[in-house]
Here is the input.
Amino acid sequence: MRNCFHGSEQPMYSRTQSEPGVRHAGSHQNEPGVRLHGSLLNRASDYRFIRLPVHQTRGECQMNKEKNCIKEKFTIDGKEVTLYPAQESSSPLIVLNQYDGDGASVLEEVRKLTGKDFHLLCVSNINWNHDMSPWFCPPIMSQDTAYTGGADQYLTFLLEEILPEGLKRLNGQPSRICIAGYSLAGLFALYALYRTEVFDSAASMSGSLWYPDFREYVESHEMKKRPDKLYLSLGDKEAKTRNPYMKTVLDNTEAIAAFYRAAGLQVTLELNPGNHFRDAELRIAKGISGIL
Here is the structure.
């Protein structure tokens, strides 16, 4: 079995021995290199790209006293970002990509499940079928649209623009940075581990692991570093469909989990009752809890 870590291919973002604590971009297709400082990743002078404007929303820092919750909202290039700072600056940071919403209901569900402190950075208003898909896939059902393979482009934007802005707003450095997502964003969370060293753990809830060739990609490529925890979940009715793509999702999810376990990773695989759309926020919360 092939080792799934530490490949010879240069990651999009990696650490160098000569510059400890520094993440930089390696060569990937036609993308120029970008150097990001690992402390807060926040100095505009550290970038070779032009920084996009950050637009603050009204009531940028809002306090919900009932839920003891502070949140900051900002937008970058149309992406809507909500940051929920933890009580301790060194707490883990969870990056959650969502189709819509600001993550408030997910945060509430996580707090019901665990008392662990963490930062939550929620990104929405994503170009879903483009930003979350690793390569092209035609529409898989009627009235669907094509999946146009923009994951590398979005990941670069996430690491160069959104994450540095979020980290700049925290008073300190998180002990770990993790990535989570539901559906296509769950697929993206796993794919990101093969493209960057930034994330320490990943959670893929009802992840679109039916995606053509993704299982083969996992089994033939190497992660950029060993994640400390992985969480995968699926609804027990999601594979009960005639759709030739989606009916593979259970087999693929179980095979990917088994592959990771055989490589010595700490993996949680959970089957939840219902189809793809049941209890999405609770499933996301369980996944986040599983990697904290």
